[in-house]
Design goal:
By secondary structure, the protein is an all-alpha fold. The chain has a single domain, classed as Na+/H+ antiporter like fold, CATH 1.20.1530. The chain contains 13 helices and no strands. Helix 1 crosses helix 9 and helix 1 packs antiparallel against helix 13. The longest helix is centred in the middle third of the chain and has 42 residues. The radius of gyration is 19 Å and the shape is globular.
């Protein structure tokens, strides 16, 4: 198992090297610090949507596939959400704290998942990862944001009501969701008739993951850590250990292939989304705790992801 761990670690190490490189580049100011904000918008609005569109548009989606993938990802989301909320409340944490614990426990950095799946399995891994993302993105936003809006204090009741309505508006405007819907529609058409669109989206998508990984690294600021050790341990344990274990057993029970099961576990085992901090700030969560959870999860995932993959393979 130890040799398997090192083999997998070496295979996915370029993903983590790019994250570290991004952090180093931001620290030395090469390129200029303002680059990372501009780059983030380019990746969010153009490159990642192109990547998702490209791979989903070439999938022959069946109802059984969609059902199986949904059960795997949503069962983990449901179980871990319940456990995180119950533990936070039983331990007497404020809604600001347990909502950040919840985000850390259930949200996934899908970009790291796609990069690892692509690194291990190429385009086939990316296609399966894109399908999990298609199910996960709208589901997690509806669940987590609804919980935060309901439980956290908002500046005013009018703004709170507006925030609830904005959940659905933002989902409709989300470029990832729009690109995935477009990809599903195009998948119903003979791809030979759309070869220019496929080639263009493929070229754009090929630039997405390296730039996204560099940006993830650039946004990690270790000096902003404000350690609250118990909620961090709970959130990290649920996200980096419990969630992938649930995903593995549910995927096996649903009869997914070995490749599909491994990609599901990769998707479940990656650290929480970097955007969790922005949501905590927007809806009144514990920003400092959220920053600590994001940073520690990225660091720990360097070890936990190859360790979990070594066990299941």
């Amino acid at each position: 198992m130890l040799s398997n761990f090192f083999q997998i670690f070496l295979l996915i190490s370029p993903v983590f090297i790019l994250i570290i490189l991004g952090n180093i580049l931001r620290r030395v100011g090469v390129p200029d610090v303002s680059f990372w904000d501009v780059n983030d918008k380019l990746v969010y609005w153009v490159l990642i949507p192109a990547l998702l569109f490209h791979h989903i548009s070439q999938i022959s989606l069946s109802s059984s596939m969609f059902y199986s993938y949904s059960v795997v990802i949503l069962s983990g989301l449901f179980i871990i959400s319940i456990v995180a909320i119950l533990m936070g409340r039983l331990l007497g944490y404020s809604p600001e704290s347990w909502s950040s614990l919840l985000q850390g426990a259930v949200r996934h950095n899908a970009f790291i998942a796609l990069a690892i799946a692509g690194s291990l399995f190429g385009d086939e891994g990316l296609a399966i990862g894109a399908m999990f993302m298609l199910i996960y993105v709208p589901s997690i936003n509806i669940v987590v944001i609804s919980i935060m809006v309901t439980n956290l204090k908002q500046p005013g009741q009018a703004e709170s009501s507006k925030g609830i309505a904005n959940i659905f508006i933002e989902l409709i405007k989300n470029p990832f969701i729009l690109s995935m819907i477009a990809g599903l529609l195009v998948s119903l058409i003979d791809s030979d008739k759309l070869i220019i669109i496929n080639e263009t989206s493929g070229l754009l998508g090929s630039a997405a993951l390296p730039l996204m990984l560099l940006t993830i690294g650039a946004k990690i600021k270790v000096r902003d850590l404000a350690l609250k050790i118990t909620p961090i341990i709970i959130s990290n344990s649920l996200k980096l250990i419990a969630f992938p274990v649930i995903a593995y057993f549910v995927a096996t029970f649903m009869g997914l292939s070995q490749l599909e099961t491994i990609v599901a576990v990769i998707f479940a085992s990656v650290p929480t989304a970097a955007s969790s901090h922005a949501l905590a700030k927007q809806f009144g969560g514990d920003e400092l705790l959220m920053t600590s959870i994001v940073t520690t999860q990225v660091a720990l995932s360097f070890i936990t992801i190859p360790l979990i993959l070594a066990f299941i393979t």
